[in-house]
Design a protein that fits this description.
The protein has helices at 3-8, 22-47, 58-68, 77-98, 102-120, 126-136, 139-144, 150-170. It is an all-alpha fold and 181 residues long.
């Protein structure tokens, strides 16, 4: 491939996605506020005093998908739960094996999490962040070890899912999920 052809591929050419109506915006806001709010409240009030967590940064990206892009294959329950848990396990394993050199553990954690999600058909982009957090999350996260896949990852993702099921189906014009498996 010539350099000109290569660079011309970066022009794009498709149309930007259409805008959404105010109803869609409001329901997305309600869902994300409730889902993240519950995880944050439970984390600060109950889990953190017990040296556990229930909220991680990658849940913010999950909220965008499961409350704002509910029809996306990346937002479906299989991807949300499976993508987070698989990525957490991969991230912890990479930290345990390569944590002496954080940049190697981080690169392998994210890239192997992507591979694992693709193989298991659970691709959920926030899973990459979940794996990275397992590596760079600091002492509190590292002390959890493989428990990180359950608390905060699995339980937090499950709370977000339950809220998504309730809120996204409350509005007449919304339906979630598109499929389970």
């Amino acid at each position: 491939m010539k350099a000109r052809e290569y660079v011309s591929k970066m022009k794009g050419g498709g149309m930007a996605p259409p805008g959404v109506g105010i109803t869609e915006i409001v329901w997305s806001w309600i869902g994300s506020a409730i889902g993240i709010g519950i995880c944050g409240y439970l984390s600060s009030g109950y889990f953190e005093p017990a040296d556990l967590l229930l909220i991680i940064g990658s849940f913010g990206a999950s909220a965008v998908l499961i409350y704002g892009a509910i029809k996306s294959p990346l937002a479906q329950p299989r991807n949300l739960i499976g993508g987070h848990i698989i990525s957490a396990l991969v991230g912890v394993a990479c930290y345990k094996l390569f944590g002496g050199t954080i940049w190697i553990a981080a690169a392998l954690g994210v890239s192997l999490a992507i591979v694992a999600m693709l193989i298991t058909r659970t691709l959920h982009p926030p899973g990459g962040a979940t794996a990275l957090i397992a590596v760079i999350g600091g002492k509190n996260v590292h002390d959890l070890g493989f428990l990180y896949a359950i608390f905060p990852t699995g339980v937090g993702a499950l709370i977000l899912l339950v809220v998504a099921l309730l809120v996204n189906n409350f509005a007449r014009e919304r339906k979630y999920p598109e499929y389970w498996f």
